[in-house]
Amino acid sequence: MCGDDPGVTSAAPSYKRHRYPVEIIDHGVWLYFRLTLSFREVEEMMLARGVVASYETIRRWWAKFGPV
Predict the structure, then answer these.
(1) 23 Cβ contact partners less than 8 Å away, ≥ 6 residues apart
(2) 10: helix, strand or coil
């Protein structure tokens, strides 16, 4: 198992140096996966809630923080 091997580590991605709080990033990624929306649709939903983030930003969040 992965947890028994001291040479294998599973580090969580770091949220440091990101413009948006963790909650905003997590919500954007959650919307994309849970509701099977496009990145542009997620962008529109976030904008409706007052969060200005481009679809490309959301795509980068998906690539970094999405499920492995």
Answers:
(1) none
(2) coil
